[in-house]
Amino acid sequence: SVEQMLYILESVDSSWFGINLDTSNYIVETDDELYDAITRSLPYAVNVQVKVKRKLPDGTKVEVDLKKMISLIKEAGYQGYVVLEYEEEAPREKVPEYIDLLKKIINPIQGARGQHSRWTVCLSRGSPSPRRGQPWRRVQTSGKRMHPWPKLHTQ
Prior knowledge:
The chain is an alpha/beta fold. The chain is 34% helix and 18% strand.
């Protein structure tokens, strides 16, 4: 449960200890429960993976509201990688579509003004890891632990 995970994170109390936040690993009934778990986990995230679907407790897969997910990530002040982890059908066709959608959600004005954003989308070819030579350290943002990377990166 999110409570157990947070208990461990808070017990360790080290700026070198964080989580790879996979937004669809919380097996909960409602979207509100999912958003609550993600919101509570984000201060400890050193990496975030988003999926387009999540599993309910009965095993059924349902669509994820990517706009809401990105909104939560932005509101938390997260500054690390955001990875699309795609496990559904037709990845060759769908992955580029979802990458474009995520870019539009993350950077809604970028195309209109030609501005470069501090956020970009990363597509994982496996388990993402921090850049070599970049230590994980504690940064205070609104009283919460945050990863210090200046922007989201493209692989």
